[in-house]
Write a structure and sequence with these properties.
It contains 11 helices and 13 strands. With about 325 residues, the chain is of the alpha/beta class. The two termini are about 30 Å apart.
């Protein structure tokens, strides 16, 4: 595999009508979701061999998510089905194109019950990049299983990518969230956060200083997405900013996942030690990731709006 993603896969119920708060929504549309699943689909659409490791309920929603992964050519050999827990759900409203209301039904869902005893170690070791998030670090047994998979991937020589993807209302409290999210940072070679997550983890609003704090915890490359302010990349040797593209934004949900999937896809097959000494190449990849994210923002939902390789290439040629 080029990329293996481990984490949550859930059903997102998006408000059909934009411009209203969640409490006022009267109609929802079902869309497949979950940050790490989004990244797996994004990588596949960009031409990479991608696999997803996660757990769904042995129910109709779980079967639907399985089918979505298959339709997008994502390997599901290690997708688990749970007879005791249901598939996770999220309800999402868009009061404005750049703000979101979330209500999760996740903490007792199948995603939190990933079982490392069902892993195929050889399969996990055989990947160039291993990507995970923090949602499956919240509860056991998913936490132990996530850390076990990271260990297996590292032993196989994979580049480890980590996106904390903070959803604070899923955690017991902020202190627990900060502690457990931070404990996983030293395991990563690459960490991606948004500017709010950067401040939550490091206490820094200055992205350059915050990035260096994250790099000081172990990763070799730090990526920060900042919404309308663009994105920022940093290594111990250099840092830089990539502006956003001027597009008509409809929905920013999943733009971070689109950015990550594109960055991982365009760095796939390259040596990380070479990349972190080559700012020109890092910036080129970051610009392509920004293009993918911009395309995603022009459509509603996440998986339906993740771009294909030819879309990103055409977009970059047009700007």
């Amino acid at each position: 595999m080029d990329v293996i993603c481990l984490g949550e896969i859930i059903i997102d119920f998006f408000a059909v009508k934009p411009g209203v708060r969640l409490q006022d929504v009267d109609e929802f549309k079902r869309i497949a979701g979950g940050a790490t699943a989004n990244v797996a689909v994004g990588c596949s659409r960009l031409g990479k061999k991608a696999a997803f490791i996660g757990r769904v309920g042995n129910d109709d929603f779980g079967f639907h998510l399985r089918d979505i992964l298959l339709e997008n050519n994502v390997n599901i050999d290690l997708l688990q089905f749970d007879i005791a827990a249901k598939t996770g759900l999220a309800f999402i409203a868009l009061p404005t194109p750049t703000t979101r209301d979330f209500l999760f039904y996740m903490n007792s869902s199948a995603s939190m019950r990933i079982d490392w005893q069902q892993f195929d170690d050889a399969f996990i070791k055989n990947t160039g990049i291993f990507h995970f998030g923090s949602i499956t670090l919240i509860n056991e047994p998913a936490r132990t299983s996530t850390l076990k998979a990271v260990e297996i991937a590292k032993d196989g020589g994979a580049i480890v990518s980590y996106d904390p993807n903070l959803r604070i209302n899923l955690w017991k409290d902020e202190e627990t969230a900060k502690k457990q999210i931070a404990e996983a940072i030293p395991l990563a070679d690459l960490i991606k956060v948004n500017d709010d997550e950067l401040f939550f983890i490091t206490g820094e609003k200055n992205v350059a200083k915050g990035a260096q704090k994250l790099l000081g915890m172990g990763p070799k490359l730090c990526l920060i997405t900042m919404g309308s302010k663009g994105s920022f990349y940093a290594t111990s040797s250099f840092d830089g900013k990539v502006p956003i593209f001027n597009v008509e934004t409809v929905d920013t949900t999943g733009c971070g996942d689109s950015f990550v999937s594109a960055f991982l896809s365009f760095m796939s097959g390259k040596d990380l030690d070479f990349l972190i000494t080559n700012e020109i190449e890092i910036k080129r990849i970051a610009v392509a990731a920004a293009a993918a994210s911009s395309i995603t923002s022009t459509k509603k939902g996440v998986i339906p709006s993740l771009p294909y390789l030819n879309e990103v290439q055409s977009f970059l040629k047009s700007v």
